[in-house]
Design brief:
Helix content is 34%, strand content 20%. It is α/β, with parallel strands linked by helices. Helix 4 packs antiparallel against helix 5.
Length: 490
């Protein structure tokens, strides 16, 4: 049985590994020259920059991400580096308050109550609700029970305001949802928040070697299972027969791959470019095309010659300088007032690589987009460098050492993400998982073809990997796959 997987990101390689473990001959088709171009990171001037795997959750014993990696026979190939138990994220507020987020629900609760004793009752009640639902990102969760949960239709804002009134407490609890999911308090479904961000409250860390190590391990395991990856050769056409059944794909170079099962992990809006015109009804095409995506990102990458203590086994977050929670991701805010995540990838004898990420909108940069991918209009480079300088200056509010010791080596914009990751409008987190939008499912109206990717479950490594299991469970049987995971977990 032949299985073709479109896309070699996290969901694509996860799907490929599962199908290969279950007897399929798997071929992964990748448009780029390497797997997972966004998540693997890159090197400049001898420094490695991790662009997608800098902060992970669910890797503690029995955690949802670790369980999936153990089943895939990948976890044992990696070295887990937990963040500081007492300070996984240091959140800096405009008024000078700094909150150091510890790991573990009990420690988190104690830390917040110490800063905001007047909110003790509300903090405890809110975290109790989150904790009860934080297991729901696990592939073996009871999704029917989740769908019928009393809070299933509520947003993060709806729930947090039932318990807490202090804006800074709300910001402390919700800021990771802004930064890792691209969602506002009023947009994030509470169950989605609890299942994704709730795992960060339990534990967080990364892998030695970051995204590069993770995807090298996944590629190595796929090779062990006789799977293969075709690089630098995207899918031009999906072949659909008269019975509305996918039978194979034609690649950009004209070659043909037959398939008994086809899994597409691209953004659903991209499907109309590769499917026959009449294969999808207009209403479904419109639905995929009009799916709202998340905000994009600006990234500044550089190195310091002086170690920064605050970034050792930790990360720094600069909270947005705005009175309204609905403005924290707004492109209308000046750079100096936007939220920011600052992480470190590695330290060598030459210095420490540091990445700075802040929200941005495609519309801010659309005027610099040329007619062809990667083509830019005059003024783009100057604008990019000017904005990068603003971002670094804003970062010195939390890390003053950057002023004298930080050197920029690369800058990415929404146009970079759009072109290199084939992401419509440069969406940093793909399809928006909002209370106002029904997300797509793995099921697809063409026989022997299914969807996967972050659009199905959620953003990040855990969301994309879980999506791979959901899609393959639709093919192989969820009871079978869940049983295999249970037997594989150490």
């Amino acid at each position: 049985m032949q299985c073709v997987v479109i896309g070699s990101g996290c969901a694509g390689l996860t799907s490929a590994l599962i199908m290969a473990k279950n007897g399929y001959n798997v071929t992964v088709v990748e448009k780029s020259v390497r797997t997972a171009p966004l998540l693997q990171g890159f090197e400049r001037k001898g420094f490695y920059f991790d662009t997608g795997v800098h902060c992970l959750s669910g890797l503690d014993a029995g955690g949802p991400l670790r369980s999936l990696l153990e089943y895939l026979n990948v976890y044992e190939k990696l070295t887990y580096l937990p963040f500081s138990k007492d300070n996984s994220f240091a959140v800096h507020f405009p008024d000078g308050l700094v909150w150091q987020m510890p790991q573990g629900y009990d420690a988190l609760q104690t830390s917040l109550v110490a800063l905001f004793p007047q909110e003790e009752k509300g903090i405890k009640a809110f975290l109790q609700e989150v904790r009860a639902l934080s297991h729901t990102y696990q592939y073996n969760a009871d999704f029917q029970a989740i769908a019928t949960h009393p809070l299933a239709s509520k947003s993060f804002k709806d729930v947090v305001e039932q318990f807490i009134s202090e804006p800074q407490v709300k910001m402390c609890l919700g800021i990771l949802s802004n930064l890792f999911c691209g969602l506002l308090e009023s947009e994030a479904p509470f169950v989605f928040f609890a299942s994704s961000i709730g795992t960060y409250f339990r534990s967080s860390g990364t892998f030695k070697g970051g995204g590069r190590a993770l995807f090298e391990a996944m590629q190595a395991e796929l090779t062990n299972l006789d799977g293969r990856i075709v690089y630098n050769n995207g899918v031009a056409d999906v072949i659909v027969d008269d019975n509305r059944q996918a039978t194979g794909v034609v690649l950009d170079d004209g070659s043909y791959l037959s398939s008994d099962m086809l899994i597409a992990t691209c953004h659903p809006a991209c499907l109309s470019d590769i499917l026959p015109e009449a294969s999808l009804r207009r209403v479904r095409k419109t639905y995929y095309q009009e799916l709202e995506s998340t905000t994009s990102l600006l990234g500044v990458y550089g190195y310091t010659t002086k170690p920064i203590e605050e970034l050792v086994q930790s990360n720094v977050i600069i909270a947005s300088d705005t009175a309204s929670a609905d403005d924290v991701l707004s492109a209308e805010l000046p750079i100096a007032k936007r939220q920011m995540l600052i992480t470190s990838s590695e330290t060598t004898k030459h210095g420490t690589s540091i990445s700075l990420f802040t929200p941005a909108a495609y519309t801010e940069w659309a005027r610099f987009e040329g007619k062809k991918p990667h083509q830019r209009i005059n003024g783009y480079v100057e604008k990019k460098h000017a904005v990068a300088a603003e971002i670094v200056l804003a970062a010195t509010r939390a890390l003053p050492e950057l002023k004298d010791y930080f050197s920029i080596v690369s800058v990415t914009t929404p146009l970079t993400i759009k072109d290199y990751c084939n992401a419509p409008y440069g969406a940093g987190y793909g399809v928006k998982h909002s209370v106002n939008q029904l997300p797509p499912t793995a099921a697809f109206p063409i026989k022997n073809m299914l969807l996967s990717g972050q659009a199905i479950v959620g953003p990040g490594i855990l969301g994309a990997m879980t999506a791979g299991f959901v899609t393959c469970g639709d093919i192989l049987g969820h009871t079978h796959l869940q049983s295999e995971i249970k037997n594989a977990v150490k």
